[in-house]
Amino acid sequence: MNTTFDITSTPVGTRMLDDLVGDGFARDRSVDDCSEARLYEFVTRAAVEVSSEKWSAAPGRFTPWEKRVSEAEGGRLARAVVACAAADWWSDWFGARPQVWIGREFSAPADDIVWPGLAGKPPSAIWTSSAVAGLPSAWWPVLREGADSAPPDGPQAIWRLTAHPEARVYEIRTPADWRWLCEAFPGPAVDGWVTPGWETATDLFDGIHLTVEGLIRCQGVEVETEHGVAKLDHWDAESTAWLHWSVVDLERIGTVSSDRSTPARVTPGRASPRALRRS
Q1: Which of helix, strand or coil describes residue 275?
Q2: Phi, psi of 104 (to 5 degrees)
C-alpha cells in the first residue's frame, strides 16, 4: 500500500527533510538508493527530535532545509521520499508485515502483564512493531539510541508474533484518525493535550497501530477536537499497542545488541513456537 502525502508541513516531515537535505539527497544523491532501514531511520530520528523538544533548552530546527535548497528542490525531494520503493510499507495495515517484540535476552512475551500507559499512550498487554528489512524491528532505532530510556544493556531477544486473525486493530494514518479516537473515547488531558480514554477504547479495539505515515503526519501536530486540542506525542516509531493480548503464536528468531559492532543474529534453528490462548 503506497499513499502519496505531503511531508513538508508537519513537525516530523520537516525535520526529515532537514536531515535528508543535509545528507545531500536534494541534489547529489537519490532517495531511490536508500534501503528500507536507512530511510526509516530518518523518520525515527526526526520523530525523536520532535518529542524531545519539550525538554530542550533550545528547541527548534538548527539547519532548516529552506535555507539550503530552493522550495522547488525541497518539494521534489519530499515527493520522491514517499514515492520511493523503501517507503512502500509506510501506510500498510499492521498485518501486512510480521510483528516483532524485543526484550531482554532470556525474557519472552507473556500474557499476564499489563504495562501502564505513559505520556498519554495506551496501557497495553504488549507493544509490537513491524519487521523492517535491515533492522530487527521498526522500534529498534529508538530503543538502540535510548530515546525512551537508557540503551539496552547486553543482548536482546527478538520474538516474532502472530496476531489473532480476527484482532480488531485501529489504524492511525492521519490527524483525522487521532481526532476520531479523542472524540469517540474522550479521556483526560495529558500535558495540556486531550488524549483518548483508553479503557473505553478497549471495548471496541484489541490494538492501536500507528503507521509510519501516521508517525510523520500526526506526531507533534495539534488537532482541534470537540473536547479541546489534542496532540499525538512521544510514540516515536511505527508500532502497535495491544490493548488485549491477541497473540496466537510466537517464535524466538534471534538476538540483537545495542552495540553497533554486534549485528543482529537470527537463529531459525532455535525457534520455539508456542500456541497461546487469546484473552
Answers
A1: strand
A2: -55, 155
Residue pair 272/159 in contact by the 8 Å Cβ criterion: no
Whole-model pTM? Answer: 0.91
User: pLDDT tens across 143-202, in order?
Assistant: 998 766 677 788 999 999 999 999 999 999 999 999 999 999 999 898 899 999 999 999
Gyration radius (Cα) of the chain, Å = 19
Contact 4, 27 (CB under 8 A): no
CA distance 148 to 140: 11
Residue type, 75: G
Report the interhelical angle of 11-22 vs 36-52 (nearest 10°).
Answer: 120
Residue 39's closest CA among 50, 52, 25, 53?
A: 25
Distance of CA 12 to the CA centre of its chain: 12
Q: Dihedral (C-alpha) 106, 45, 48, 52: value to the nearest 10 degrees?
A: 130
Cell numbers describing residue 59: 528547541
